[in-house]
Amino acid sequence: MNMITNHLPTEELQALDAAHHLHPFTDGNALAAKGARVITRAQGVTLTDSDGNDYLDAMAGLWCVNIGYGRDSIADVAARQMKELPYYNTFFQTTHVPAIALSQKLAELAPGDLNHTFFSAGGSDANDTNIRLVRHYWAAKGKPEKKVIISRHNAYHGSTMGGASLGGMKPMHAQGGLPIPDIAFIDQPNWYAEGGDLDPAEFGLERARQLEAKIAELGENKVAAFIAEPVQGAGGVVIPPETYWPEIQRICDEHEILLIADEVICGFGRTGNWFGSETFNIRPDVMTIAKGLSSGYAPIGGSMVTDEVAATLNAGGDFNHGYTYSGHPVAAAVALENLRILEEEKIVETVCNETAPYLEEKWMQLGDHPLVGQAGICGMMGSIAMTPDKSARAGFAGGAGQVGLICRDHCFSNGLVMRHVGDRMIISPPLVLTKSDIDTLIDRASKALDLTLKDAT
Ligand code: PLP
């Protein structure tokens, strides 16, 4: 058998990939025609492809490599754990040291009394857990009819049946008969796209109050929970108006429903605090975590719950739910080492005091570019909305996404990974980005915008 290694020519790797590898969120025909970009190594904030090209990774992989690439101590911890105890489960009254240590550390870091973690292998399955968990919670309280979970259009909560149902992505619902029953939706707080003539503060209140109206429509006795990302990530880094979260919190407090903060992207420093819930002053009952929990070095996620939720679940007897890899020892050890690095290198503090303010200053200047209708940033996640007409916040004539795609390709050609969501360009770089990396990022993004402007007009 021929060994497939980094040393094979790119075309050969691409042909093999197209022949045998089914990719997430990828058009297989386009893949066969053009071939996938083959990434062979990464160090710090830089990716290298099979042709030797370097890219500044302004997406931290998929919003996850918070501590940057190439951390030897994580590799060492993983190797040590694999030798000592590569696997054991946490079912049936069994545990192991990495799961104990990680759940204790998370209780220390998480806001409020979110002191208990149910582990998964990522964010989607953690949100599946949340669906079952909040329904089990209400059943344990003698209210099994409280089942409906309210979410938002254009939210992203994962790709499993439960996660994709909770998400509000229409193209995902169109495939496979989603959503599952008892999921309801309100509109997103996207002022740029949907705010019309309202000012952002009024719009934020209007969108939050849709939650109260939806609870009234469904009946408070039927609603189990509301789920939302503090800042919508995959929806295009949609930063809600300042009025939005306080009103959502009021509504959740006044009505008997649980608040689930999906912190899969916002958690572990992304918004300038350890959790987005702190940035927006949210008091969740349940918090979804993944991605930055291990900085992507190992697949792990979880559902964190408050003392009260945990006590109620425990009073309800066995929770008949679990994953083979819940609390996987190697993934848990890797996550612990990642948290140690985040803490000891004071990465979140540096983001808050230095990196995020510098990035914000530079990023917001992109708002002056003739192609940009709005620039927005929250900590280390930012977006720019491209438009042919700034004052009207208009879309492009050819349909959403075409100009975004052009811009993304210009980014790649200029050594920058920036993602597009429709015609919004988004970033979520590693938190360890230096000021000089930020200058490079902005320089390359400006160049890509200039080239896109030429192509789009
Ligand atoms: N929730 C949010 C907010 C996400 O952004 C994602 C992934 O991007 C998920 C859940 C799903 O996580 P995973 O891809 O680890 O299953």
TrEMBL record:
PROSITE patterns per the UniProt record, alphabetical: AA_TRANSFER_CLASS_3
CDD domains: OAT_like (cd00610)
One Pfam family in the UniProt entry: Aminotran_3
Gene3D superfamilies: Aspartate Aminotransferase, domain 1 (3.90.1150.10), Type I PLP-dependent aspartate aminotransferase-like (Major domain) (3.40.640.10)
Source taxon at top rank: Bacteria
Gene Ontology MF, one: transaminase activity
Alphabetical keyword list: Aminotransferase, Pyridoxal phosphate, Transferase
Cofactor(s) named in the record: pyridoxal 5'-phosphate
Protein family according to the UniProt entry: Belongs to the class-III pyridoxal-phosphate-dependent aminotransferase family.
NCBIfam families recorded: PRK07480.1
Protein name: Aspartate aminotransferase family protein
Naturally occurring in which organism (per UniProt): Halocynthiibacter styelae
